[in-house]
Amino acid sequence: MAVDKKYETPMLDQLETGPWPSFVKEIKAAGEENPMANDLIGLLEQSYTERLGHWKHGGIVGVMGYGGGVIGRYSDLPEKYPAVSHFHTIRVNQPAGWYYTADVLHKLCDIWDKHGSGLTNMHGSTGDMVLLGCTTPDLEPVFSELTELGFDLGGSGSDVRTPSCCCGQSRCEWACYDTMGLTHFITQKFQDELHRPAFPYKMKFKMSGCPNDCVASIARSDISIIGTWRDEIQINQEEVRNYSKNGVNIVKEIAVLCPGKCIDWDGNEIKIDDSSCRHCMHCINVMPKGLAPGKDRGAVVLMGAKAPIVEGALLSSVIIPFMKIEEPYDDMEFWEVIEEMWDVWCDNGKARERIGEFIQRVGLGNFLDEVGLEPVAEMVAHPRDNPYIFYEDYLEEEDEDE
Amino acid sequence: MAAVEEVRDAMYKMVSGSAGQKKWKATDLHKACIELFGDDYNKRKEGKEAIKELVNSGKLVYTYFGGSFIEVPRVEGAAND
Fold it and tell me: Chain A contacts of B59, Cβ < 8 Å?
């Protein structure tokens, strides 16, 4: 269906002039056929001109039984731009590792062309496929057709957000565990928490296969599960020598930059003191044929990262220094720890307080006490020179001496 | 152990009785039910189940206003026709 109504867009046009891909170009192309996309252009131009947003965010809309997955949006100019009077966002739970077939993507787009603006965001920052611009009456039909295609809605609001992961062992030799398998398992295990908001605020899981952390879980998720190893880095001395012969300056480019200062190169053989290794992956990244993560693999669990929203950004802190991640996943004790942490956070957290902010407010020591986890040195960035870390056993001994 | 029906009815009464005056989060409902039922109440079992039943039946709905809440269905002020 061709759309006749056209808007003058001098400000948006400027965004098409650069060498980079332009969302304006894409919305205009969609607007040739779709009235919602066309009215979006008009509304956006007006917002840019007035420097004023015209969207109302959040609210009551959703699909029956679900508390997440739909983010309500209404325009405050429904008479002027009737096609975007309702412009709700739908989050669709992406497949682990973002693998699709072309056929599925075609079908997904067909559903969206039929019921919505035709505009998508592949993918949102949590990882979901984001369908932009749906009317309230179309929400249930879209949901129904998505479920027929095998998709479910993702998370939004104060719930478990759609878990996401790197491609893991499907394409990466460094992945220390099956990130896609664990992500699928977590998605299934916490279906209730994903669709029925029960927390003080959002709760994100991200799974990375190795410390390169390609999904940036250490910066973006409340619970980061990052692959690591606890034995020695595997070394192929012949390949290391080849790197040296081919121009890699092992001292300058690797040994000097090693944060644990644990690498020694004598011109013929590399030696690594694994007890001081920080598992930063730098040496492995520079010489992927010569070095590889150890064989005793698992993951470190960190907690508390977030982007700045209500308060500033946080990186996550170690909660479990190492755990094996093996099937059957349901047998892992980890889930009890998670539920214990959620209980403490839910009972004591303030509204819109992320779990990282909560830990900062009450203190890591108190949090660990409540959860029943033993403090270990790996939880502290600088355990030997941080004067605010106290070890209770040590204090008790001192008391007895007095 | 408190019966799910009992918890469900109590939660509905709390939410509908204070509609327009107080917004309830799931955590608030659990805390109120702990006060009401004491040790007989398990939020992971009958608490979760009661909320699920109330929302699936349409008696209550989830809303989002800066955070997620559980409310009696209503027409939103900002909603366009």
Answer: none
Asked whether the CA dihedral A104, A105, A106, A110 is positive or negative, the reply is positive
User: A303: which 2 tokens?
Assistant: 């907690």
Predicted complex: ipTM over 0.90: yes
**Residue B44 within any structural domain of the chain:** yes
Residue A208 CA, chain-centre distance (Å), reads 9
Select the residue from B35, B80, B81 to test the A interface by mutation, using most A Cβ atoms within 10 A: B80
Contact B67 A352 (CB under 8 A): yes
Nearest by CB: A65 against B56, B66, B68? B56
B52 to A192: CB separation less than 8 angstroms, yes or no? yes
Burial of A390 per CB tally in 10 Å (0-12, 13-18, 19+): exposed
Q: What is the pLDDT of residues A256-272, one digit of tens each?
A: 999 999 999 999 999 99
Q: How many other CB atoms are found less than 10 A from the CB of residue A322? A: 15
3.40.630.40, 3.30.1490.270, 3.30.70.2500, 3.40.50.1370: which CATH number matches A10-148? 3.30.70.2500
Q: How far is CA A136 from the centre of its chain?
A: 28
**C-alpha to C-alpha distances, A95 to A64, A101, A184, A364, nearest whole angstrom:** 23, 11, 8, 34
Which chain B residues are closer than 8 Å to A76 by Cβ? 78
CATH number for the A234-292 domain, one of 3.40.50.410, 3.30.1300.10, 3.40.50.2300, 3.30.70.20? 3.30.70.20
The residues with which A281 forms a beta bridge, in sequence order, are: none
Both tokens assigned to A387: 């004067």
pLDDT digits (tens, 9 = 90+) for A19-60: 999 999 999 999 999 999 999 999 999 999 999 999 988 788
A323 DSSP β-pair partners: A299
Overall number of domains in chain B: 1
- From chain B, pick out residues whose CB is under 8 angstroms from the CB of A157: 62, 64, 67-68
pLDDT score at A399: 57
Residue A401 reports pLDDT greater than 60: no
pLDDT, tens digit, for every residue of A182-234? 999 999 999 999 999 999 999 999 999 999 999 999 999 999 999 999 999 99
The reply to whether omega before A123 is within 30° of 0 (cis) is yes
Contact B48 A85 (CB under 8 A): no
